Structures are given as C-alpha cells and as structure tokens.
TrEMBL record:
Signal peptide: none
Alphabetical keyword list: Membrane, Transmembrane, Transmembrane helix
The keyword Protein transport is assigned to this record: no
Transmembrane segment boundaries: 21-39, 45-68, 89-109, 129-151, 179-197, 209-231, 252-272, 292-311, 318-339, 351-371
Taxonomic superkingdom: Bacteria
The keyword Ribonucleoprotein is assigned to this record: no
Protein name as catalogued: Quinol:cytochrome C oxidoreductase
C-alpha cells in the first residue's frame, strides 16, 4: 500500500497561543465560581455538576468513538480520528475535576443524609449501593478504566506514527472489543451516580442509554466545530475534506434520531405506567418555568436538527452544519441543567451566574487540555494503513 500524499502541514503551529488563552479563561472562570462557593454553597455544587457532566460526556463519547472506529476497521474517520484521540487521552487529568463533586456529595445527594435515610424505607433499601464509601470507590474505578483506555488509544496511535508498525492497529482493535464492553457498563453506572441519584426515589433503567445518546450527539457537534476552527486557521484544509464534514453531519443526524427515540421512550413508558414515584420526576421538570427549557432543548436538539439535516445538501453546507452544531451543544447544556437544577430549586426555574462561570471555567480547561495534547503529535495518524482511503473522501 503506497503512502498517502498529504499536502498540509501536520504540526500544530507553535505560535498559535490558543492553549494559554483557554487555560487563562478556564482559571478565571473557576476562580469566579469558587467565590460563589462562599456566597451560595449548594448552588456552587449544582452548577458545577451541570458543567462537569457536560464536558465529561464529550470526553467519554470521544473514547467510545475511537474504540468503535478501531473495532469496525473504519476508514472514513481516520483523517479526523486524532481529534477524539486527543480529547479522550486527557481523561486521567480530567479525573481531578470529579473531586468537587465528591466534596459536595452532602449538598448534591439527599441519600448521604443519614437522618433522612433512617426515616425513608426507599432510600434505606438502596443503602448497599447508595452509600458514600462505595460511591467514591466507583468513581475511582470509572476513571481508572477510562483513563487507561483513553491514553492507550492515543499513545499507541502516536507510536504507530513514529514506528510505522501496522501491527499496532491489531493491538488497538483487540483492546477496543473488551474496552467497549466495560465502557458501556461504567458509563451507564456513572450516569446513574452523577445524575439519576440526585433524586434517590426515581429511577429509569434506560437512563444510561439516554445519557450516552445525549453525549454521542454532542460529540459530533464538537468535532464539526473543532474542524471548522482548524480550517479557519488554515490547518488540514486539504486533509479533512468536504466528505468528512458530510459524514459527520450524517452521524450527527443519525444520533439526533436515536437520541429522540431514547428520550421519548423513557418519557412514554413512565407516562403510560403512571406510577407516582416515577412521574413526579417529570412533573417537577414540566412546571415552574422548567417546561420552557424542555421545549427549548426538544426543538434545539431534535426538531430543528432533524428538519434541517434531512436534506443531503444541508449536511454538506458548512454554515448550516456549524449552526446546527452550536444549537445542539447549547441544547445539550440546557438539558443537563433541566435534569440537575430542579433538585435544588424545587419552586421554579432560577438561573445562577455560577452556572455560566463554571461552564466557562471547565470549558476553558477542557479545551486547553485538548489543544495542549493535540499539538504534541501529528494532527493526523500519518502511518495508519486506512489513511489513504480516508483521504480519498470527496
């Protein structure tokens, strides 16, 4: 197989100081949010959890994407695969940001209150799973697994760049098989821990798939925006082609439909069963102003993207897919806010400035880590045997 011809510079420009700028913005945002801890203690932790679950979802979806591409021997994605590789490789660093969630467990999770559990037969029955020690242990297990997989996928891919050993591709594929299995289990339980147990009386057996669907749809929107940024800087303009954007748009459209199917299935089954301890979760989120957030994310991440991206031509239009990507990510944040905040603000919707500063702070750190990693290696896996086919996208 002949080596593919690449006319672009594959080194991230050293004079492009986006990393420092992002870290600067992130630190300022986190410091501002930290001030809020002393002003509104509980609000700090809830706002932080919204942003943490948002950016964690993008990192985890990146890891899933990379392993899936290796397992299926995908060719189309090779030219853009280094982007999700770089994102997921930082999961061992991102694990640090679970610490505020652990420190705020007493504010976030009602099941950590021993006096409340003692007088509540439902929570008492869940004590073997919902207890502080086991919760902390689970977080260590989750991030240990994700960190290992994320860094291994990235480091071995970079090693193949340097050595040209195509046998590494087989190693990555063999890692991805069991990796996807354990990833699916841990992602589901992490979504239960972070979000579903905010209301310990409520449960949904589909919630893990629901969080996954949200995350994966958001990932494709993120990848499109990163590619558009690279193009704006004159990077990879002849390597990542119009066909790749079209494929990302197709994937984003597909997971728009999948997300809607899962979200509606969860709602319909609970609505149809009409069991009080299940329906109350939706009732709290469809009153007090929260219903407008529900309409916003419903239209923002399903109705509008579905109608717009239904056209083949729209998926190839850069302005359209960029706009839809922004809309989906905004809706993703709104939906996570809709899930989390009614637990704190029972009586109605209230937007705190800490929700904005925590998002800016964690976002700056998240993308600062990404670009810091991204510029350490080639922006494309240059010795991957499937790169030639990927470059032939039109």
């Amino acid at each position: 197989m002949s080596k593919p011809k690449i006319t672009d510079t594959l080194e991230f420009p050293s004079d492009l100081n986006i990393t420092k700028s992002l870290f600067g913005v992130g630190i300022v945002g986190l410091l501002a949010t930290g001030v809020g801890y002393f002003l509104q203690h509980d609000q700090f932790f809830f706002s932080y959890l919204v942003s943490f679950s948002f950016f964690s979802s993008i990192a985890l979806a990146s890891l899933f994407f990379v392993m899936l591409q290796h397992l299926t021997r995908s060719h189309w994605s090779t030219a853009i695969r280094r982007i999700p590789e770089a994102i997921s490789s930082n999961l061992w660093i991102w694990a640090i940001f679970i610490i505020p969630v652990l420190l705020g467990m007493h504010s976030l999770y009602h099941w950590t209150h021993a006096d409340a559990v003692a007088h509540d037969p439902v929570m008492k029955g869940k004590v073997p799973y919902l207890n502080t020690s086991f919760f902390i242990i689970r977080q260590f297990i989750y991030f240990a697994l994700w960190s290992f997989l994320g860094y291994r996928m990235y480091s071995k891919s970079v090693e193949m760049d340097e050595s040209g050993d195509w046998g590494i591709q087989t190693l990555l594929r063999r890692t991805s098989g069991p990796g996807l299995f354990f990833f699916g289990i841990t992602l589901a339980f992490a979504s239960f821990d972070w979000l579903m147990t905010l209301d310990p009386h409520w449960y949904s057996t589909i919630f893990g798939v629901y969080y996954f669907a949200m995350s994966f749809q958001g990932l494709f929107a993120t990848l499109i925006l990163i590619v558009m940024y690279l193009w704006k800087q004159g990077l990879l303009t002849n390597t990542i082609k119009k066909g790749h954007i079209y494929d990302l748009g197709v994937q984003m459209f597909g997971f728009t439909v999948f997300y809607a199917y899962i979200a509606f299935s969860q709602f319909l089954l609970i609505y149809y069963a009409n069991i009080p301890e299940e329906t109350v979760w939706f009732l709290e989120r469809l009153n007090g102003g929260y219903e407008y957030l529900a309409y916003l994310y419903m239209f923002g991440r399903f109705v509008i993207p579905f109608v717009v991206l239904l056209s083949k031509r729209a998926k190839s239009n850069y302005k359209i897919v960029t706009s839809i990507s922004v809309l989906i990510l905004i809706s993703h944040l709104v939906e996570l806010y809709w899930i989390v905040m009614p637990v704190l603000n029972h009586h109605g919707f209230h937007l705190s400035w800490m929700t904005i500063t925590s998002f800016i702070g964690l976002g700056g750190i998240f993308f600062g880590l990404f670009f810091h990693r991204f510029k350490q290696s080639k922006m494309v896996p240059i010795n991957d045997p499937t790169l030639g086919d990927s470059l032939n996208k039109h």
